[in-house]
């Protein structure tokens, strides 16, 4: 039985401590030989061995590519809740290079000697089942509430969930008895026995048990990878099974793959020369032989197969079998374990039919071509934070660019930095601190680069730096017809112009290059003011901001009166410079806007202001949002905003100070046109119709433009508010790069008539 798994090869090393660095060198040799996996025995009671978990961590730091795993970790001496957090942490630290090989225990005298509890075979199965529930629950950082598992051997009573691993960690179980095999068929991702422990026919009997149990659980048997620890020797002549020339090894391993479904071969050897032969000679030849046979027989890849329960969740309008091969392995569909972690946005719930996760511009082009052929909604996302929520959908396809998250210095002299569209601004800020640089980027570190850098970017450094789009100097973009273009002032200048303000309408940006500003520490201030005199406070704060130097940027969050508490305003302010005396003076002027209730100030790097945020969102709220730009917070504007705050129809209101350096460009320099307004007003409510009616009656008559990222009103007239006189030119650019209006989920711009 061939399950169609992509073949992988690994080493199974002894963690001996006589020469502590020897296992590390063997792990590095495994990576150099091209192996995919390095594993270590786990016998915590063995004084001649290094502790396996410590060794795994050390090896992860000393390697770059290879996956690491215990083979198998001793559950009776490693409590599952702690093991889950340790595994997630190591996966995060290694960039998703950890696999969890686990066993229920076997050497019970030694386990008892170390303080473990002896279990019967039946108790071991129950214990492992409970442990898997705890491990999965801890990893489910998006799960509702705390984790409770009331087991007979393992229990947790209100454990906090998280952290989520960097990737979907596979769980491989070492099992030899039918009951344990049936358990792993239901709950695990792989079967990991050692060939030396199997009798003739055990492999096929075990596969049969696992296949039947998997199907009963609604899983395709191919969802359980078959791994095998093997041993032997390379010799000039055949001396038995896996005892002979390389050609014999290739033939016998090929048979195990095609006839017994083995997808991963793990060589037990501490001989670096043997490891090298296995990785460089045997593994490639087996891959080639198996691929040749699969082509002849038409064996489908395991990634294309789903269990019966998952198949019922597929959407009829999507051709799942047609997903490009380069994207299939990382694709997520309803019923997959990873689905809950990718379906929603920060504030928007979604139920897409398929999430594609490209890693290159070429894969974006493939995914885009596939999505266009499906005739379902298309969403493109970077950080999944957009308040409008248009990067998820119901029943459609989402291109998730989260894997394109690099931060690379291109030119130190000009402070040019290349940022992957899937990077988050918190990570960018952190990466730029050692250089003494910063890029203005909103107020939350979880926001994705791609969305902000193609829409505007009104951030807490904005008055000193300008909009984020103002410093974009180049971009790579995949257009609707699959071209991968470079956009800059010299290449495709019309596309470059349009990307800086309306990028979501013109293509899928894979990276942008931005010129950062020189910036050391900043002064970050958090004030709370009594806002019962709401209009008066807003007027005084607005006047102070208009008179302030460019170094000062401030955002005001207005909390309406509730439950006997009067309205309050929170000010988040950044003084972009190290002159603390000047900063204190400016902050004191802001504090005069209203009665001061609380104030905290810090001197810190900008990365401390926009800290990296959680990327595991659960949706919820689905708010209606309206926005508007104004030049002054005069009496009419502030009283209108006060009316909204007191209406009970909006639960979150914010005003962002802009202007300063954002005014240095002409309105037609970028697609974003708003170059004279000083403030951005926004309000969030529960229903679009009621918020629209209130906003249109009270605030809209006094506004001059809107900010797309903070607006969910889809009416066509909003495009005029967003782009003003630039809309006509944008329609021409749209016709040139997206004449079929493929990118229409986010305030679609109609292509100009030909």
From TrEMBL:
Transmembrane segments: none annotated. Coiled coil: none annotated. GO terms for molecular function: FAD binding; oxidoreductase activity, acting on paired donors, with incorporation or reduction of molecular oxygen. PROSITE patterns: FAD_PCMH (PS51387). Signal peptide: none annotated. Belongs to the oxygen-dependent FAD-linked oxidoreductase family. Pfam families: Bac_luciferase, BBE, FAD_binding_4. Its cofactor is FAD. Keywords: FAD, Flavoprotein, Oxidoreductase. Gene3D superfamilies: 3.30.465.10, 3.40.462.20, Luciferase-like domain (3.20.20.30), Uridine Diphospho-n-acetylenolpyruvylglucosamine Reductase, domain 2 (3.30.43.10). This is FAD-binding PCMH-type domain-containing protein. Residues 348-519 form the FAD-binding PCMH-type domain. It comes from the Bacteria. CDD domains: Tetrahydromethanopterin_reductase. InterPro entries: BBE, FAD-bd_PCMH, FAD-bd_PCMH-like_sf, FAD-bd_PCMH_sub1, FAD-bd_PCMH_sub2, FAD-linked_Oxidoreductase, Luciferase-like_dom, Luciferase-like_sf.
